[in-house]
Amino acid sequence: MLRELTIKHCSFPLVAPFRIARGVKHAAEVVLIELEQGGATGRGESVPYARYGESVDSVMAQLESVRAEVAAGMGREELQARLPAGAARNALDSALWDLEARLTSVPVWAGLARPSPLPLTSAITIGIDTPQRMGEEAARLAGAGPANVLIKIKLDAHEPAARIREVRRAAPDARLIVDPNESWSIDLLRDLQPELESAGVELVEQPLPADADDALLDFVPRVPVCADESCHVAADLPRLQGRYQAVNIKLDKTGGLTEAWRLLRSARAEGFRIMVGCMVCSSVGIAPALELAREAEFVDLDGPLWLKDDYADGVRLRHGLLVPPQPGFWGA
C-alpha cells in the first residue's frame, strides 16, 4: 500500500448562531482527510452541504468508495474523473495538494508560480438579525478594522431594505456585499435596485433560486449580480452569460483547488468578475482557497472566524486583514 487514508468527522462549535435565509448553523460540521505517504501527511477539509444533497455520512461514503485507488496512488487529475464536483472531492483534492508539497518540499504557491500568500482584505459576514442588531454589528466591525472594511450582509425577503439601510448608517465608509442566498424573487430584486445603489452595495450574491435565474436574462441590474449556487465548475459558465456579471468560486462546489483554477481562468477569459468564497469551516478548509484569493476582486474567507476554537496556527484577523496560516500549516 502506497498511502494510508484517514477520514474523520469533526465538529467546530460557533461563537454565535450563524443565520442565513435557509436556516441557522450552530457548529461547522466538516470532513477531514489525512493522507500519509513516506512519512509526510497531507490534510484536506470539506463542508458537506445539504443544499447540494450532501451530508457528513454521504461524503464519507464517497471517500470510502475510492479508498483503494487513493491508497494505490491516485492523482489529482484521476480524481477529477473518479468523483463528481462537491465536498468529497474537495477534501481529497486538497489533501493531495498538501501531500505533494510536503513530499517535494515545494510549497503549493511556488508550484503554481505564485508569490507566497500575504494578508488580504476579506469580507466579514453579518448574519440575519433585526435591523438594529445588524447595525450594531456593522458599527463594531467598522470600529475594529479599517474604515473601508468589507462587510457581507446576509438577507432574506423580510425587511431587506431596512437591514441594508441600518448597516450603511452604522458603517458609512464600509464596502458592502449583500447575500440573499436564493431567497428573493425577480420582482423584489427589481424593486430593491434604488436601495442597493443608494447604499453603495458593490455586489448582490445569488438573489434568485438557481433554478429560477432565467428571470435574470432580461434584467439589467444597477449593481452587479454574482452567481453562487448557480456556478459550481467551469462547464457552468456558458449558461451564466447574460444572467450574471460575477461568479463566486468555492472549493466545496468545484470539488477542490484543481477545478477551481480551471474555473477561475475560464471565468476571467469570459469576462466575469471573480469572487472567492467559503463555507463556515476551519483554517484547513480556507488555506487552499487562499491560493485563489489573490486573483479575486472580492474575497469572502471569514469562515474560521466564526469558530470558537480554530487551529492555533491557522488564519487570523489582524488590523482588519486576514492573515494566512503559519508556514507549514498547509501546502508548504
UniProtKB/TrEMBL annotation:
Residues 131-226 form the Mandelate racemase/muconate lactonizing enzyme C-terminal domain. Binds 1 Mg(2+) ion per subunit. Keywords: Isomerase, Magnesium, Metal-binding. Its cofactor is Mg(2+). It holds the Pfam family MR_MLE_N. InterPro entries: DgoD-like, Dipeptide_epimerase, Enolase-like_C_sf, Enolase-like_N, Enolase_C-like, Mandel_Rmase/mucon_lact_enz_CS, Mandelate_racemase_C, Mandelate_racemase_N_dom. Signal peptide: none annotated. It is an enzyme of class 5 (isomerase). Its EC number is 5.1.1.-. Belongs to the mandelate racemase/muconate lactonizing enzyme family. NCBIfam families: racemase_DgcA. This is Dipeptide epimerase.
